[in-house]
Design goal:
alpha/beta, 12 helices, 10 strands, 41% helix, globular
């Protein structure tokens, strides 16, 4: 279990995160949604020990990893796929992947590479290409593949859909539930709330560094507060409460019931 308790962190100024409590179980997918500046990426950077925890704790399987340093974080089963992919553009696909398994022997690295290429077959024929020559979607596959080369217990994904075409986004998000079936816990940071919530076991809404709503992915997807605040109803139609109320009803109607709407399609594999 990845356990985050009363976590407070920030950069040089005031606190960005305020008392975050969250658990990610092996084989589960937990989505964190919220607007820009809510603290989503800061949460992953804190978990990865890229910025210091000011108070609270981070533990994996009962072992305290608070401010343990990035190397110890990876060694104890967490792998962070950062926003913007951040592949090494002048290195080959194979070299980028190999970096993900830098703590492992050659034989172990080779075994993991086979698994990653099964997940992302598009990378197999491009192993000798430099990463900078790949499309945005292929670079995102490479970034996730590099994270998986560490064979993590918990995969931390920061905005994997950013800047990608819808068909590529769907390909990426189709893979995530299959990862959880292998026992990997996934903590997903994502602005595309609908697709993130549709595959999440549990989800939270992060606003101004605090968790304001929790539930299953389906519960948050149908929650009026998420529709009104997160899907931007207030911003799009102004501050008129009556207009917001009408628009919210229209959105919920469009989503449909659990039997016939988007939720039924998601569960049946149509959406």
């Amino acid at each position: 279990m990845l356990e985050i308790k009363n976590l407070v962190s920030g950069y040089d100024g005031p606190d960005v995160l305020h008392g975050i409590d969250l658990e990610i179980a092996p084989g589960s997918l937990v989505a964190v949604i919220g607007a820009n500046g809510a603290g989503k990426s800061t949460l992953l950077r804190t978990l990865s020990s890229l910025i210091r925890t000011r108070s609270g704790s981070i533990s994996v399987d009962g072992k305290d990893l608070t401010n343990a340093g990035p190397s110890a974080i990876v060694a104890n089963g967490m792998s962070h796929v950062p926003e913007g992919r951040q592949v090494f553009a002048t290195m080959t696909v194979a070299e980028n992947l190999d970096l993900g398994a830098y703590r492992s022997s050659r034989s172990v690295s080779a075994q993991r590479l086979e698994k990653v290429l099964e997940i992302f077959p598009a990378l197999k024929e491009r192993l000798n290409n430099v990463a900078g020559s790949l499309s945005g979607g292929q670079q995102q596959m490479l970034a996730i593949g590099r994270g998986l080369m560490a064979e993590p217990k918990y995969l931390l994904l920061d905005e994997p859909s950013l800047g990608l075409a819808p068909i590529v986004v769907q390909t990426i998000f189709d893979i995530l539930p299959n990862l959880t079936k292998t026992g990997v816990g996934v903590l997903l940071i994502e602005q595309n709330g609908q697709i993130a919530l549709s595959i999440a076991d549990r989800a939270v809404l992060l606003e101004r560094g605090s968790i304001t709503l929790r539930g299953t992915g389906q519960e948050l997807l149908k929650n009026p507060e998420v529709i009104e605040r997160y899907l931007g109803v207030g911003n799009s139609i102004g501050a008129d409460p009556e207009k917001q109320k009408v628009m919210s009803v229209r959105i919920r109607t469009a989503l449909g019931s659990e039997e016939t709407g988007i939720f039924a399609k998601i569960n049946s594999g149509i959406a």
